[in-house]
Records
---
Amino acid sequence: MRLALAVILAAACTSPPRVTATPSPTPEPAVLSITALLDLSGHRSAIGTAQRNALQLWVDQHQARGGNPVTVRLRIADVASSEARLILELRRAAVEDQADAVIVGAPVQDEEIFGRAVEAAGIAVLLTLPASGDPVDRPGGRWTFALAPTLARLAARQVDEAVARAALTPALILSDARDRPDAMALALLAELERRRLEPLTRIALPVDGSVPPVVRSSLSVLRGLHCTGTALACAATARAAQSSGASTLLFLSYLTVPADMGEYREAAQRAMWPGSADLLPFDAPPTTSVGQARAEFLRTYGDRHGPPSTHAATAFDALTLLLHAAERVGADDRERLRARLEETTLPLIASTYSFGARRHAGFDPEAIVYLRWTGSAIGIAPAPTPSPAPTPTPSPGASPTGTRRP
């Protein structure tokens, strides 16, 4: 696979050289042309479909408002859970479609090769799913903006949650065999090593979704299962854990789509995943413009498709960020659009995004909470139950109740 991607990248680099700080060949200055690359087929199709729904909602709302100084044209392409196809579609967007920016809503398996392709394209790329770290430190980082928490940040938060809930060990990491390498699993193992904690065993789940015998035989003693792929991939294991009567906690990934919780049945009550606190239902009518926009997104998306995932809201935000930049510097110059994004701090639906010259991971880490499915909506996972404190030994001169004698 790596050799195939290298060949594709070499082909991409044979395109005419890019000259920076000059207008891109977009023929209509008031038109912002955006290409979204999503997994609309393959094993991650639910993630791509949720983002496509959010992008279409944004376009519908933008057109309904009317009188917009910048017209947005959106093309959505299916990369079919294929890294090679992702690279090809990126090149097509930059060279053939002459897009002004690209939204990537699919996981990037090889960040080095992908980054080199972005550098060759010379176009702003917004990632709606987690990258391993801040893209500014990697090839193509000047053009790449991460709108999701980094995998390193998510791994640190997950270890914190597992420790607080006494579910760190014994536990297993469950990977999807179709994701190689499993970047989130590697991030979890790296975080455990950094803290000098005992590493967890990683097991690749079969493509057919069945429960491996080694997992089934250990369910009764496990305190935690860390599913690093899609929620649907771990559904059978979650149901088996529930049937065994074990008190196993299920830590699902940031890629979780709430619609998959129906496959979990009763096991959903023990599942949790990281997401944005800003997507929780409002207890009272919001009073700020940002709060009102969030409430409108939750209501409209919910009416059409059910509760949104965090990455669906992030895809919605990606279009807003690009329009915000284009309205200030124009849509006909890729370098100026990129530079404007780099200067942006903006509160939106899923987070407040803040970028800078040395910060291209813009998601506010304080917005991350652990979510659960209540059966009809998304809520915050219950706070960890503290371990009971040992009963103190009465000090000499104290009564059996621990109060001092008069």
---
Amino acid sequence: MTTSWRQLWIEASAALGGDPEAANEARWLCQEASGLTGEEWALALDGAPHPRGVARLDAMVARRQAGEPLQYVLGSWAFRHLDLFVDRRVLIPRPETEQVVDVALDVLATHHPRPIVVADLGTGSGAIALSLARELPLTGVEIWATDIDPDALDVARANLAGLGREAVNVRLAEGDWFEALPPERRGRLDLVVANPPYVGMDEELQPAVRDWEPHGALFAGPDGLDAVRALVAGAGTWLRPGGHLVMEIGATQGPAVTALATAGGLQDVSLVADLSGRQRALTARRPVASVC
């Protein structure tokens, strides 16, 4: 009997555990291996797969069985209105970070008329910067996407290439936090947004995260706040007076991060809860009367 994509889907689902989640993952893997989605995939279910598609599916199932996250196996993942290329050089885009983009867009719409200058520090895959570029107007927008890791910037560059006409508003720069930015942007940023590393060195993580995602994008010193300290310290001089800082934070870090931002001279410090009610984003403003 000739093997069909339907049979391969059933076999892949069983290999991955046989539960509903495994069936979904197996379907995604089969679609990636076949190059078909939607109606085309449905119509091809009982068709004979090409041997190269079968070999690719077998390789992806083996990677998933070894514990590699599904997003890396697929090589891409949806983030808001984007389909981002991702691999082990960058963090997997997560729903919490999608909400950080919402917070950033709301801050810009409420407080900062164009022209605006935005910096996404520690951009990784480019998820935040490229989403802002896609969802903000095409004119009067300048977005800097920075990372200290040149490998991560290579991923962001690949994603930028697929953005379309909005890519004209995005500039990539390599360096450690604010040091990556051109000196003439000091004191001129309307918004600094970041999803920094915020995991303490002794904190337990799920094996799929600990063993596969880049540690430099996860861990930030003994208490997980080293990157937050750097961002708060730089915000006082790199933001323009009245400019805002928006950061993703750990679910239990709200009080500590609020204290750091307040001690750093920022005002209107507030926390934003995610969809599950956990405090996952901080917003703060450089005082209008601040002097460098």
